[in-house]
Amino acid sequence: MTKNSLKLNSKVPSGTINYKWENHKSTLKLVSPNNRSNIEIIVVGTGLAGGSACASLSELGYQVKAFCYQDSPRRAHSVAAQGGINASKNYKGDNDSIYQLFYDTIKGGDYRSREANVYRLAEISSNIIDQCVAQGVPFARDYAGYLETRSFGGTKVSRTFYAKGQTGQQLLLSCYSAMSRQIGKGRIKMYNRHEMLDLVIIEGVARGIIARNLISGEIERHTANAVIIASGGYGNVFFLSTNAMGSNASAIWKVHKKGGLFANPCYTQIHPTCIPVHGNYQSKLTLMSESLRNDGRIWVPKKLDDAISMRNGTKKPENISEEERDYYLERRYPSYGNLVPRDVASRAAKERCEKGFGIEENETKEGVFLDFHSAINKYGKEKANELGIINPSDLEKMNLGEEVIESKYGNLFHMYEKITNQNPYKTPMKIYPAVHYTMGGLWVDYNLMSSIPGCYVIGEANFSDHGANRLGASALMQGLADGYFILPYTIADYLSRYIRVSKKISTQHEEFDKSEKNVKDRIKKLLQNNGSMSVDYFHKRLGNIMWEHVGMSRNHVGLSEAIKSIQLLRDEFWKNVFVPGKIDNGLNAELEKAGRVADFLELGELMTMDALNRKESCGSHFREEYQTKEGEALRDDIHYKYVSVWEYKENMSISDEIMYKENLNYTFVKVQSRSYK
Amino acid sequence: MKKLLNFKLKIWRQENKKEKGYFKTYQVHDISPNSSFLEMLDLLNNQIICDKKESSTIAFDHDCREGICGMCSLYINGRAHGPDNLITTCQLHMRHFRDGETIYVEPWRANPFPIIKDLVVDRSSFDRIIISGGFISVNTLGKTIDGNMIPIPKDKADKAFDAATCIGCGACVAACKNRSAMLFVSAKVSQFSLLPQGKIERKKRVINMVNKMDEEGFGSCTNTKACEAECPKGISTEYIAFMNNEYIRSFTI
Fold first, then answer.
1. For residue A44, which of A156, A199, A243, A262 has the smallest C-alpha distance?
2. Residue B90's closest chain A neighbor by CA?
3. In this predicted structure, what is the pLDDT of residue A501?
4. Which of A7, A219, A404, A493 is the most exposed place for a label (fewest CB within 10 A)?
5. pLDDT of residue A164
6. Which of B157, B162, B154 is nearest to B234 (CA)?
7. Per residue in A580-598, pLDDT tens?
């Protein structure tokens, strides 16, 4: 069911786009420093968004309670982001600017993100780099001591700051350090190995959470003046993904079921450069950074015969001559080449493999080459010139070139070799697309507040900045912008209004009783279920349905079938799942997984419904019925230039959710069809 | 298709910190040589669930499974993160083991890392060391100077980066006969002391962190370099020397 009208007030400030944030800040109310120490804020998730929010809010003097399911905030999945973080500093003098970064992001998101939010992100980006440098992030430097940058997909400038292939790790650790400093001061109370299992709403506003202590198994009540959700994305719906094993949707899903609107659930980014699936025992997929596409050339054989010989191992990539290779990205998209955005690169790989050109030596036949041979040659020559070696031998050039590649991507190459047992300096890497990042999430207004007053959502958990596709190196940027520089201002506006009427809420309030009872009942139901199948069995089956029908390409028939299959699977789960362990009996990984998979089984249906509703192709959402003659995505701006926003009603099923529309208006940028040719 | 493998596993089971632990023997069959060690444990846990004979699955820590979060641990056949160099347990693959081999799996063993359950230990002592001073005390609200106003020589930046690659997994402690945390602490101390931004607080930082490390019950370093040998990120014991120097310097200058 679809409705057009609703209370969806995005609160985007009026005025020209380049002054919106500045003007808005001057209208936001403040909380005086002596009041801040009386205000408690709960932050769920301690990755880049949550961690930076914790650090900044406690720095301002608020009392913060931080929750994470890991044993330490240092392990949040932001740690695994490899490639880099964007900022429009124009250090390279290649004509980068706030406008360029803004434009690339809007275009990259296929004109389905909120213009004002994206502009603000581009505006703040430079600040983030300065902040992180001051905190001691060891970004790459050139020989003069200045910050180094590189390029990423979907852009024509070099604006990505990086720390080898471990940028996420270095940014997260600096965030964690800043948090640690505040923990030491007593301004942050850290709850490690805790999982949020419900949001508590009192008199219409968010006032606390129910959390499970994962070590003792105890169910705890926590109150606060505001709740911030920074729990990341939900890509693990697909079972196999690049997400950490514990990444889950539970926090955002509980908020949704308590009335928080969910936006664009169907937008799941498929990342083009992952190590291909090699067996059904696999638990997850490993991402190779997009930055590799700076120097790696992607190809498959031109001849079907060659592809077949590759697959049965009779021919090696080294045996295929230059003329017999199809560098299909360079062929189809001459102006961006291997640096086209992720959705475009992913679909192109799928297209080649479906035509039979895949090279992986297993039954999936899915895989393409990412080849560094040309780059090694080029760098080898340059380096030899630099060192003044006259007529270097091929071997010398190769060694010098490999050294350069090693300094740029060493840890990624090492990781690839450990997993696949192949040396990527000598033979091309094999890659294939895999589920990576979810652009959908809880709906938020310009202040990053969800539709529930007092409940804020930041980073990957919200929907606003990336539209239908996220460009590389912009997730880190958004997480840190939200946490360090946006939320601390906007949340004060809410708290200042609220503090006058607020009295301390007791954990004995009946809403806490109700929520706790629901949480406990569900745990009991899972532990006492008389089933026989493991949680993973259901999760894998859900993943198969999602990947098959709601993955890289979708169609009406497949999506309709998927909805039915997910409903059936959900019923079967509740009838037949077996979770070992006793209630309140400490650490129980199976119980944790069971709760999360139960949530995925609901969210998966909503994602499918959303994909079915959107009868156009845009960004990561590719509907087979809507494509150009060349097989490119065909957007429908007349009918679908909106954010689809879903509402759950208490005690109703997922299929009864109502969809509202937030229309997207672009005033600063001209909406064009997206071409990377 | 490569030949599938079978193993006999001797796994440390322990209900909690107070209960006594013991080795329990399990058999696993038809394991792909390309499967990771943790994927093999997933399979074993699935087997335990289907058998319904035990009250709980084997608890072990893991998360990103990309070798970067530092969550996975495991002492395998007497080595932290098992029999290969420069990797975490999630990146250890079964092709490193012989068909039919008996494999011993234990938790990190160190007093400052108390056992929570089975193979899971509590590494929050590492967090407390960072809390004692592992940071640069800059305000996080965005009024700092332009990043390029602080030029850093490339060799210094690279050296700081190499120290910063520590993932805090605790293998250094597990591998050390003295249960010393010197490699972990020295990596953080060195990262910040090598950077101009971190130099201002260097004295206070090294003293606080070293004191905290002692207080948590970690042992001293006797230069056996077992930490370096087992560190998944290849962090050099050179940084321990650097930290010692920083420590002495903090009293003298």
1. A199
2. A419
3. 59
4. A7
5. 86
6. B162
7. 998 877 899 999 999 999 9
Which residue type, as a one-letter code, is found at position A312?
A: N
Domains of chain A are: 275-434 (3.90.700.10), 523-641 (1.20.58.100)
Collapse the DSSP code of A341 into the 3-class scheme (helix H, G, I; strand E, B; otherwise coil) and give the result.
coil
> What are phi and psi for residue A670, nearest 5 degrees?
-85, 125
The alpha carbon of residue A366 and the mean position of all alpha carbons in its chain are separated, in whole angstroms, by 24
Residues constituting chain B:
253
Q: Which residues of B185-209 are buried (b: 16+ CB within 10 A; e: fewer)?
A: bbbbbbbbbbbebbeebbbebbbbb
Our CA angle for A296, A297, A301, nearest 5°, is: 140
Residue A72 distance to chain B (closest CA, Å): 7
Q: Is the dihedral of CA B88, B31, A236, A208 positive or negative?
A: negative
Per DSSP (E only), the strands in chain B are: 5-13, 22-31, 75-76, 79-80, 102-106, 115-117, 120-121
In the DSSP assignment, the letter for residue A621 is: B
| pLDDT one-digit tens code per residue, A321-334 | 999 999 999 999 99
Please tell me the predicted confidence (pLDDT) of residue A5.
Answer: 53
**Based on the number of CB atoms within 10 Å of its own CB, is A628 exposed (0-12), middle (13-18) or buried (19 or more)?**
exposed
Residues of chain B with Cβ-Cβ distance to A141 below 8 Å are: 151-154, 157-158
Q: Is residue A1 predicted with pLDDT exceeding 50? A: no
Q: Is B154 on the interface with A (CB under 8 A)?
A: yes
Q: SS3 sequence, A273-284?
A: EECCCCCCCCCC
Interchain CB distance below 8 Å, B157 and A145 = yes
ipTM value, please give it. 0.97
**Percentages of chain B per state (helix, strand, coil), in multiples of 5:** 40, 15, 45
B7: helix, strand or coil: strand
DSSP string, A277-307: P--TT-----BPPGGGGGT-EEEEESSHHHH
What SS3 string covers A57-104? HHHHCCEEEEECCCCCHHHCHHHHCCCCEECCCCCCCCCCCHHHHHHH
**Cβ contact (<8 Å) for A286 and B56?**
no
- pLDDT(A479) > 70: yes
Name the phi and psi angles at A571, rounded to 5: -60, -45
How far is the C-alpha of A70 from the C-alpha of A77, rounded, in Å?
10
Closest to B135 in 3D by CA, of B164, B158, B159: B164
The pLDDT tens digits for A204-246 are: 999 999 999 999 999 999 999 999 999 999 999 999 999 999 9
Counting Cα atoms < 13 Å in the Cβ hemisphere of B26 gives 25
Average pLDDT over residues A347-369: 93
Q: What is the mean pLDDT of each run of 10 residues along chain B (253 residues)?
A: 90 95 98 96 96 94 96 98 96 96 98 97 98 96 90 95 97 98 98 97 97 98 97 97 96 78
Residue written as tokens 């846990």? B45
- Look at A134 and B157 and tell me if their CB atoms are within 8 Å: no
Q: pTM of the predicted model, to two decimals?
A: 0.97
CB-side neighbour CA atoms (13 Å) of A18: 7
> Can you count the helices (H) and strands (E) in chain A?
19, 20
- For residue A537, give both structure tokens: 């069995």
Q: Do B168 and A74 touch (CB under 8 A)?
A: yes
What is the mean predicted confidence (pLDDT) over A39-45?
Answer: 97
Nearest C-alpha neighbor of B184 from the set B197, B169, B194, B202:
B169
B54/A contact by beta carbon, under 8 A:
yes
Beta strands in A290-427 (DSSP E): 297-301, 325-326, 368-371
Q: What percent of chain A has pLDDT over 70?
A: 98
Q: How far apart are CA A359 and CA A213, in angstroms?
A: 47
> For residue B50, which residues of chain A lie inside 8 Å, CB to CB?
532, 534
* Whole-number average pLDDT of chain A: 95
Phi, psi of A98 (to 5 degrees): -55, -45
